[in-house]
Amino acid sequence: MTKLLRNLAGLVGFLLLWEIVVQIGLVSKTFFPPPSVVLVTVGQLLGDPDFVRDVVATMLAWFIAILIAVVVGVPAGLLLGSVPVLRNATAAIVEFLRPIPVAALIPLVLLVIGSGPEAKITLAVYAALWPIMFNTIYGISEIDPVLMETARASGTSRFRILSSVALPFTAPFVFTGVRLSATIALIAVVSTEFLAGSEVGLGNFILVASTGSTRFDLVLAGTVVAGVLGWLINEGLEQVGKRMFRWSTVDREAIA
Known about the structure:
mainly alpha, MetI-like fold, 10 helices
């Protein structure tokens, strides 16, 4: 509760500063409307079926991307984390791919896949995959080697060791990766919708509002909604993680 109050106090302070800066004329109201205007626009947009459709399209693409990233990233992390030879063999290609920004891949993805929902989902999966996979690998490295050796000595298969020993132990690390990837995936989806000119989505709404119009309150309103969605996702997952892994001492903030 104390954290929530601190967050709200910081938000209110930011909005007041924004309002004051605009009202005293340090920036133009036309190009940078005050929050008193933007928040009213947000309220109006939430009653607009077309805008709600854009939000739903963005969140649906985000959900599918996160689901795919988990399905791919967790097994890949378990495998790479438990087989050092394989991890060393793939280290170069992984470190080559990981720093490539999503924006740089948009032309290639559009050429290969097209500009439909598949494009933003693919790029969001790409962006979200790395934190999940690397947190899983890190979690594997933290397992007591004696525990793993005991399981092997008892004749337990590698698959059984990974599923019944490694995965439960690494679950808090994996969840941290999912929480980090969740906001990254949302950024990737909205950015792709904006840069690739998707037919529907929050990014498309912001793109249309920012071209051929002086309604910059619409641009900021769409941006605010995207930011609120990101905050809700992160806060919701953080609260879920605290309840699911109360027994864990894992630092859920540091591993990325």
